[in-house]
Amino acid sequence: MDNKALNELYRFVIRHKLHAQSPVRMAALARMLVAYNNLVCMTAENDYDERDRIIRKIDALFDAVDCRDTGGLLLRYRLTKDVMLAVYGDRDVECGDAYRDIVGRFVTSVDRVGMTLDELDTMKCVVYELGNIFGDNTQFDYYPWFRERCEEWICGIGENGSWQSVDLAVAARRLGLLEDNRCVFNDCSFDDWMLSAYGYYKAEFERVFPSLNTHGDIGMLGAWADLLRMPGFLPCDTDLYDRVIGRMETIAGTVQPRSDIWYTAMSYVVEHRCLSIVGKAQEEMLRDIA
Asked: Which of 174, 235, 244 is nearest to 206 (CA)?
């Protein structure tokens, strides 16, 4: 994606209607709006009027999200916590109130069989809610449950670093949450096992990557893009991240424009392009300082 295409898609997103949209499209719009906002904040293109326009669109999207389940709550957290240079006191309160209700019900549920994705979303909500608490953030409600889940995953890792009957998309999300446990909650006790699992699944993902060419592969590609895109405890692989985004852009060109698959794929492409522009701007700033 070049800058012209990035700007054209921005004009499409900023005018996009928000009501009566599928959850997939809402999530894609959120990813794109957060990326555009952070681009404006981090580059010399900082345009306060345009940023105000983006923030108002983010506010409207927040209000349009159906927050009766974990997926809706997670999307609202992203529209609150991931928006650079934004102060959302009221939004934080709304998320916190929903957190105590939705996460509380899920954690105390006696039957969570077959709810793998809901569980992963719920755990990410715990990260968002407790992650910005100053000091020891492991003493609050639902972190003990979060860590129990992490410990259960660690105990289930085989000698070769794999989990039994876990696909690559779920493995990537588990690894991301284990990394959150390490970086957000300062728990280093699983480091060796995490690296073992990461090494196994990254190799498996690279092995199958050449065959990931259809719209049915978008979920797996997106999960790995999320894991690979930001440096953390796990080794960053920008080359593989770039290739994943390139594949998603290729798939977007083969599906019906404005379909749910197109929205999802293009949201990752926009995020990648915005991050690339910010990275280059930061490099130039460091060269100027030196």
From this structure: 244
Q: What one-character DSSP code corresponds to residue 164?
A: T
Distance between CA atoms of 165 and 155, rounded to whole angstroms? 15
Instruction: Name which of 163, 238, 228, 239 is nearest 200 in CA terms.
Output: 163
Q: What is the pLDDT of residues 221-247, one digit of tens each?
A: 999 999 999 888 998 899 999 999 999
CA pair distance 140, 66, nearest whole angstrom: 26
Q: In Å, how far are 29, 220, 255, 258, 271 from 214, measured between CA atoms?
A: 22, 11, 9, 16, 21
pTM > 0.90: yes
Q: CA 13, 229, 161: angle at the middle one, nearest 5?
A: 135
Contacts of 284 (CB under 8 A, 6+ apart): none
CA 36 – CA 79 distance, rounded (Å)? 12
d(CA 18, CA 265) in angstroms, rounded, equals: 19
Distance (Å, rounded) from C-alpha 181 to C-alpha 219? 23
Residue 133: pLDDT band (50, 70, 90) is: confident
pLDDT band per the 50, 70, 90 thresholds, residue 289: confident
Tens of pLDDT, residue by residue over 37-85, are 999 988 765 577 888 999 999 999 999 999 999 999 999 999 999 998 7
- The string of pLDDT tens digits covering residues 73-116 is 999 999 999 998 777 788 899 999 999 999 999 998 866 655 78
**Rounded to an integer, what is the distance from CA 33 to the centroid of its chain?**
13
Contact 16/264 with Cβ under 8 angstroms?
no
Residue 40 in contact with residue 47, Cβ under 8 Å? yes
CA dihedral 131, 134, 139, 141 (to 10 degrees): -50
Dist. CA 26–CA 21, nearest whole Å: 6
